[in-house]
């Protein structure tokens, strides 16, 4: 497995390293080199399934999978949750035909340059630190699930209560006290070169917990598929 770590997210034109992870959706491993030279790939790098936003974003990725595949683009969702815990979750919350992998060590996040951000009281140095005073001014807008735009902690608590997700020891092992793994999506061409991305690092935090824009993704997928 690659141990490469960079201090900023990979950008269009950057070639991704090979990463080998435990597959969730089947036994064995999944590697980025499995796709190289064969097909474009959308890779979604998420926090663990203890994150209510990530649970929804994985489900949204599964919903887009068929449309992307029609354009010749494969999809891979990577979660920080240990593999057995993730398999149990997806047994009850299926993601039909979406390839998923487990990365509790966050090797893929480091390789793609997605940092871990520290929560402070009032000191912000994005994307290394963010003050809670700043976090509380952020708004997550999910009209179908939230009564109004809310700050991420309040929104997360409400969604977790709604889901009834039970935090286990496996979840606690990958939780980061006082910190949070930033996440994102990267669209790769057949040669494993980034052609489009959407990450929480961009927009000085305004992308925190936000879903990607499906229309923007599908437009990029059309370009990559040709």
Automatic annotation (TrEMBL):
Source organism superkingdom: Bacteria
SUPFAM superfamilies: Thioredoxin-like
GO molecular function, one term: oxidoreductase activity
Residue span, Thioredoxin domain: 10-226
Protein known as: Peroxiredoxin
Source species of the chain: Rhizobium giardinii
């Amino acid at each position: 497995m690659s141990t490469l770590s960079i201090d900023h997210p990979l950008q269009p034109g950057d070639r991704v390293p090979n990463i080998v992870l435990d597959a969730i959706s089947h036994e064995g491993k999944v590697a980025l080199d499995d796709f190289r030279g064969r097909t474009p790939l959308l890779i979604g790098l998420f926090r663990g399934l203890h994150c209510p936003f990530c649970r929804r974003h994985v489900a949204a990725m599964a919903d887009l999978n068929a449309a992307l595949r029609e354009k010749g683009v494969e999809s891979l969702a990577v979660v920080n949750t240990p593999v057995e815990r993730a398999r149990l979750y997806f047994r009850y919350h299926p993601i039909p035909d979406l390839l998923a992998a487990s990365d509790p060590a966050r090797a893929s996040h480091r390789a793609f340059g997605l940092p871990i951000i520290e929560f402070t009281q009032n000191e912000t140095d994005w994307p290394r630190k963010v003050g809670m005073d700043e976090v509380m001014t952020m708004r997550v807008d999910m009209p179908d699930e939230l009564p109004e735009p809310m700050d991420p902690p309040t929104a997360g608590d409400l969604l977790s209560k709604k889901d009834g997700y039970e935090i286990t020891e496996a979840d606690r092992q990958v939780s980061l006290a006082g910190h949070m793994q930033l996440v994102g999506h990267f669209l790769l061409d057949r040669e494993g070169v980034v052609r489009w991305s959407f990450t929480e690092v961009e927009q000085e935090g305004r992308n925190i917990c936000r879903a990607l824009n499906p229309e923007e993704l599908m437009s990029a997928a059309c370009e990559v598929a040709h």
